[in-house]
């Protein structure tokens, strides 16, 4: 398998991307070919300095960089020699099987949706966030901010996408799907939640367990927790701030709360597009880059995009 | 001032209500007359047993109780001798100046809106939750779950109601109002947030500081944090679960996290109705009851309902 990594994305790139590669390569069973896309005048000396070398490592020169505040569509169009544009070109043409970047999120989403394209039958791609469960398990919340306003049919699809993701990447067997809501009973909630509940209840592709509340996010009631991207983004950032709070109070080394640190998960795949695309946190450090490569490996190995395509092809008009 | 307390509301009533009275009366400067509304065959022996006695204490017999799962409107109509129905009757006729209950929330809301009635000019009453700020301050989130689906004009009014509440009850001078959103810049967010931002920006009755994100809820960017009741309820319950998490991890005695415990705040007033109505958590213990009485005192003293009436009368059609 071939994995493309944007060396120029993230606040601490390319140094932390280089260190992430080093960390990744220090592990065992590293058979993936890694394509490091970035400015070689910057990246090459760093790779040498940190003695990151492997026959599986290939440097792809990209002299341009899309900055954080650039307009995504405009930048992708004008900077065709940027690391993100080259990454998507390689992904679209099959030179790599997955593309990872901690760079301009908007550009990554535009690239994913317009260059890689949405899987037929999927209304809208989605992104997720990982929630550490108190009992040691892992949950995902979906949508984590890509789709602020959602329709019930989209939430219904997120449940299918999230179940496949949880099953294939986190090895959760028959993942429990919960609808994030303000009460347990059917009929509770805002208009969106009220209209989504019956769809999830009837959906035979998922294991729906009903509504879950804000207090259930960290317990084991549900593995895949569904909401619109507005709610999901508030939850994601609030959960990140819980880590900041325990750190400020001196409990940063607590085994459980350590798991709240974004670096443990690295980034989120864009689910619902034809190939694995992983978007990292802007403040990604080495561990985050290493973990994003691991997620890409799992996505390729499990062919989660192929499974999504197969599952959604049933819904297509004849 | 005269404060009515439903002795029968809450999972641990009437015992914890009695203990709450005891706690309250043990403080200094207790001049309020307290009307204890409940089944006197149950309440009187408990008051005697716990030696809760004061010339300011008056027992009002209410032989019926509205249970947790009863239909609010139906129960209020059929059980006119229940503690909640009698409480609202006393409040509506001026025998008491504030009414507190940890009983059936729906019945409390129906009572507040139909017996006490919404202040002219207020589109919808609202409830809030208290958020402990890391720097020691106190913030409020509004709406905390009363209005799942909101219009921009409602959120704009919540900002005014919340500012008055924060100023009069938490003594926050010129409270900073933030719109809970998925990004800092104007134009971010779902349709509701996008439409609400310009209203808040133009609102001269509040000190609007812009958008705040999920990570800002515990910092000091804003004192009054505005969102729809769906989002607010998720945040409220998630914040409550943070207390559960730190307790599970053994940090329950941490000075900051202790403040996450609902008992410190007791309950939430229904803001936007003509008289002080305070709804308690179903699991209220003594401290919560005591604190609800204190909030009622402050609401009466500061005449926050009168101030709301004055402020909203400007908006009324001529």
TrEMBL record, chains A, B:
Top-level lineage group: Bacteria
Family: Belongs to the PlsX family.
UniProt xrefs under InterPro entries: FA_synthesis (IPR003664), Phospholipid_synth_PlsX-like (IPR012281)
Protein's UniProt name: Phosphate acyltransferase
Function summary: Catalyzes the reversible formation of acyl-phosphate (acyl-PO(4)) from acyl-[acyl-carrier-protein] (acyl-ACP). This enzyme utilizes acyl-ACP as fatty acyl donor, but not acyl-CoA.
Top-level EC class as recorded in UniProt: transferase
Annotated source species: Sediminibacterium roseum
SUPFAM superfamilies: Isocitrate/Isopropylmalate dehydrogenase-like (SSF53659)
Alphabetical list of Pfam families matching this protein: FA_synthesis (PF02504)
Catalytic activity: a fatty acyl-[ACP] + phosphate = an acyl phosphate + holo-[ACP]
Gene: plsX
Cellular compartment(s): Cytoplasm
Subunit comment: Homodimer. Probably interacts with PlsY.
Keyword annotations from UniProtKB, A to Z: Acyltransferase, Cytoplasm, Lipid biosynthesis, Lipid metabolism, Phospholipid biosynthesis, Phospholipid metabolism, Transferase
Gene Ontology molecular function terms on file: acyltransferase activity
HAMAP family attached to this UniProt entry: PlsX
Membrane spanning stretches: none
Pathway recorded for this protein: Lipid metabolism; phospholipid metabolism
Main location group: cytoplasm
UniProt-listed Enzyme Commission number(s): 2.3.1.274
């Amino acid at each position: 398998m071939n994995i493309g990594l944007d060396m120029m994305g993230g606040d601490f790139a390319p140094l932390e991307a280089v260190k992430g590669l080093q960390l990744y390569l220090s592990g065992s069973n590293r058979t993936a070919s890694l394509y490091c896309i970035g400015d070689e005048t910057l990246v090459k000396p760093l790779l040498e300095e940190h003695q990151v070398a492997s026959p599986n490592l290939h440097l792809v020169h990209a002299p341009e960089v899309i900055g954080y505040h650039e307009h995504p569509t405009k930048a992708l169009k004008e900077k065709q020699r940027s690391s993100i544009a080259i990454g998507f070109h390689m992904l679209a043409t099959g030179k790599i099987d997955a593309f990872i970047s901690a760079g301009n999120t908007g550009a990554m989403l535009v690239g994913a949706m317009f260059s890689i394209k949405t899987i037929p039958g999927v209304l809208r791609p989605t992104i997720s966030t990982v929630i550490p469960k108190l009992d040691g398990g892992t949950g995902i919340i979906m949508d984590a901010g890509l789709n602020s306003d959602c329709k019930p049919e989209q939430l219904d699809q997120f449940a299918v996408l999230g179940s496949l993701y949880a099953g294939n990447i986190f090895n959760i067997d028959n993942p429990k799907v919960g609808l994030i809501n303000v009460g347990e009973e059917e009929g509770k909630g805002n208009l969106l939640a009220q209209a989504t509940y019956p769809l999830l209840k009837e959906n035979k592709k998922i294991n729906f367990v009903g509504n879950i509340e804000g207090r259930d996010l960290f317990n084991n009631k549900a593995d895949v927790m569904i909401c619109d991207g507005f709610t999901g983004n508030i939850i994601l950032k609030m959960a990140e701030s819980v880590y900041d709070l325990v750190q400020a109070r001196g409990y940063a080394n607590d085994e459980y709360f350590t798991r709240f640190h974004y670096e443990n998960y690295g980034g989120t795949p864009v689910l619902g597009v034809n190939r694995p695309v992983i978007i990292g946190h802007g403040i990604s450090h080495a561990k985050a880059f290493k973990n994003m490569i691991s997620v890409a490996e799992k996505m390729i190995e499990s062919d989660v995009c192929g499974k999504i395509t197969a599952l959604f092809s049933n819904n297509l008009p004849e």
